[in-house]
Amino acid sequence: MKILAFIPARGGSKGILRKNLVPLGGKPLIQYTIEAAQESSLLDAIFLSTDNREIMDFCISCGLGVPYQRPEHLAADDSPMMDAVIDALRWLSAQGGKNSKPDAVLLLQPTSPLRTAQDIDRAIGQFIANGSESLLGVHAMREHPFECIKKGAQGQDWEYLAVHSRVVTRRQDYLDEFYFINGAIYLATTDFILREQRFVTKGVTDLFIMDPSHGVDIDDLHGLQYAEFLLNEKTVNGGLNDEYNEGIPGLVNKVGFY
To answer: Span 247-257, mean pLDDT?
Structure first.
């Protein structure tokens, strides 16, 4: 199976100025995603989608070929990500050649810098082993729905998001499993993407469970500071939690780069 890593990196950003190039642990944010993709054993190619010359030049310096530039109308704040993915697939098809139509696309957003090459390969291994059309990265929720409430119109008008089937006094006694879509991994066959115009469909998409520390999503300065903290912990303690990255299938493909 030929799998394309798609890295989206708009030049504009509201939460953090120049977010994709903002320093994190001494490196631009996007470099973590590039390096994880380059270290993966199961990706066949890496495709950068950006409208920004500075981002292009930096990614080229990291070893990526960048023949494609995202159209401006697909790089606005309200531009759907899926439109950028489909435009890239159409562009690749028009170019022809061996990489004209990958079998599957792995969306790797630079705002998830702690996602590792092992996460990528484990996700792809699960995707292939299960014969999935679509796969989504998740991690266990920090705020459990049994302890979260939805407020109504009045102060006393509220309800729990989820109600346990029995009375429990300790969180560790909760039997139900709830997960958060962290944005670190979206993987789907090209046919699924073109047919559904999305990466995720309820009842079809497989769940890929990740270490919560690997699923950190940077959307604002608080997220950036938290990621910096986790990176410092990695330096001190010798690595982020790797229990989720054991048992990666031994599937090896030759990696090529656009």
So the answer is: 37
Asked if residue 50 lies in contact with residue 56, where contact means CB atoms within 8 angstroms, the answer is yes
What are φ and ψ of residue 119, in 5° steps? Answer: -60, -45
How far is 62 from 44, CA to CA, in rounded Å?
17
The tokens for 36 are 């994880």
Predicted model pTM: 0.84
Instruction: Give the Cα-Cα-Cα angle 48, 77, 69 (nearest 5 degrees).
Output: 30
Q: Quick one: which of 111, 171, 175 has its CA closest to 143?
A: 171
148 within 8 A of 160, measured Cβ to Cβ: yes
Token pair 């879509």 in the structure block, residue: 181
Least confident of 93-97, 134-138, 144-148: 144-148
pLDDT over threshold 70, residue 171: no
Strand-strand pairing, 179-189 and 104-107: antiparallel
Q: What does the alpha-carbon distance between residue 214 and residue 229 come to, in Å, rounded to a whole number?
A: 13
Over the chain, what is the mean pLDDT? Answer: 85
Contact (CB, 8 A) for 47 and 6: yes
CA nearest to 98, candidates 239, 235, 254:
254
| The pLDDT of residue 146 | 67
The helix-helix angle for 29-39 and 53-61 (nearest 10°) equals: 40
Return the DSSP state at 6: E
Pick from 131-145, 156-170, 242-256: least confident: 242-256
